[in-house]
Specification:
single chain, 440 residues, alpha+beta, Rossmann fold, Arc Repressor Mutant, subunit A, six-stranded mixed β-sheet, four-stranded antiparallel β-sheet, 15 helices
Amino acid sequence: MTQAIIELRGVGKSFRSSDGRERPVLQQVDFTLREGEIVALLGQSGSGKSTLLRIMAGLVQADQGEVQYRGQPLHGPARAISMVFQSFALFPWLTVQQNVELGLEARGVAQATRAARAAAAIDLIGLAGFEGALPRELSGGMRQRVGIARALVTEPDVLLMDEAFSALDVLTGERLREDILQLWRSGSMPTKAMLVVSHNIEEAVMMADRVLVFASDPGRIRCQLAIQLPRPRDEDSQQVRGLVDEVYALMTAGATRRAAGAGETAAEQPASALLTDRLPAADVARMDGLLELLAEPPFDGRADLPQLAEEASLTDAELLPVAHAVAQLGLALLAGGDLQITPLGRRYVDGAHGLRQDLFGQQLLAHVPLIAHIRHSLEQEPTGELPDAPFLRLLSEQLGEAEAQSVLRTAISWARHGEVFEYDLRTSALRLPTGDEAPG
């Protein structure tokens, strides 16, 4: 085996909520990044992937466990580890040349030397001739190339890429990814290893020697897949398509559980949920559209997720939450990288608007504990109305404030469609729908 560059052993990290409670973000993360490999990290938004990268870069300290760089404990920012961010993170008042030179300037490198090294990095990444341009004069892809040149100019051992291609359009992202891989294969990059955080399953398969699937709440490595195909890889080849399917299956594993009612054959049902679970960020219109597409030819009720994503023109980051949502509500089965409509889902698709609302509401109360809890609380209130603050506090204890707000927004959107409860944006109050009577 090649030499380990970064090693994580039992790494954990918690953040303190506004009420003083500790919220675990990472738990018992074990990981080794070795020379000569590219590793891709896949997982849901908010699962702690970015926090993990910052711990590896020495920008954030772990609360538990050990982080080592080349066998030595890492206690602060590592000079030999660079990061590329999704947001480009360029200074808008500085030119391309000046942005790229920043890291060298901070290290006290002489002006002539840093100018020469910055020019070389700019040329390497394909931006020669744009040294004097300001970020606003560049396209998104060119701005991200500046961010990569700035990371490479320090000649890092390790390059950490945090959703580096996700803010770009598909073609621009693919072109930049291919250019990075070409530099890697040619040995032009000084980098010895790369860790790429992504939502794009195909991107991970095309780039990586290993794909790690991250679990959430708290974040931890759930499984990994070794990829032994030589690069460059053909995205349309049988081997790549098979690996993409396999990663989809790993990403959706555990979405359903085996269960059967009295006198019924075993069937997949939505996995049991908890009150403070993170809800898939899926809007109802997209859920309806996906179920309708799934029910029609050529799928006729069952689809391979990569094919469904292509037919629906959805990215992995858009498709997976919707697939998880319809599975959680029992409208479809999600297993083995396939999505299959259930008899209830078929009834939902064939139903008129009123029937859809009724079925949706019933499934919310049966399978989304948060929505059922809110509804029950409103029914116990004489006015049939409650502020959202107590529910936000409840969610914040487990998820943090920002994620709690996101989850409650999703719950409200689903509940309004299912006529389970309403929400007054002006007063931030939840209330029973008009016509539903509260006791008393």
